[in-house]
């Protein structure tokens, strides 16, 4: 059996094919990485930076109120989660009439975030739930509003089993 000689044209075609595959795979991976962005905290860091001073002012106002807000979350057997928030003022009196809302945020994938509607079930006691909560690490974000203005914000890492 006679072997064919290795010519310059064959070597050139092999090099073009090799680098074509490498560039194609790199391009595909780059496109997928840019399109998904699951691990970012905010979609636009520039826009988040513009509201930074307002966030600092809101945090100082919240600290001056000296409210005691306790949140409890547990994962139910059916795969959902129950959230309970108890809000008290600086004197220990229950705070009524606030509109609380919550979110369960996945630290690694914003696409898995879940909203939690909280309704006042007693004086200063707010309850709600979310369906189909996967086990693992979550950030429990609680926001309280009064007259259309956010007066409370809390973010805590929780582990649900």
From TrEMBL:
One Pfam family name is: FixH
InterPro entries in the cross-refs: FixH (IPR008620), FixH_proteobacterial (IPR018037)
State the source organism's domain of life: Bacteria
Q: What is this protein called?
A: FixH family protein
Name the species this protein comes from.
Bradyrhizobium diversitatis
């Amino acid at each position: 059996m006679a072997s064919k000689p290795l010519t310059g044209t064959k070597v050139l075609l092999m090099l073009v094919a090799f680098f074509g595959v490498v560039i194609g795979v790199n391009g595909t991976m780059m496109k997928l990485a840019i399109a998904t962005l699951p691990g970012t905290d905010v979609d636009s860091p520039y826009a988040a930076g513009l509201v930074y001073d307002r966030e600092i002012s809101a945090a100082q106002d919240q600290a001056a109120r000296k409210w005691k807000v306790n949140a409890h979350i547990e994962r139910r057997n059916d795969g959902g989660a129950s959230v309970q928030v108890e809000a008290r003022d600086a004197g220990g009196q229950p705070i009524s009439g606030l509109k609380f809302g919550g979110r369960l945020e996945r630290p690694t994938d914003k696409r898995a975030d879940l909203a939690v509607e909280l309704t006042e079930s007693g004086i200063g006691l707010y309850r709600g739930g979310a369906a189909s909560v996967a086990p693992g690490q979550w950030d429990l974000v609680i926001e309280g509003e009064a007259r259309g203005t956010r007066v409370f914000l809390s973010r805590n890492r929780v582990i649900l089993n």
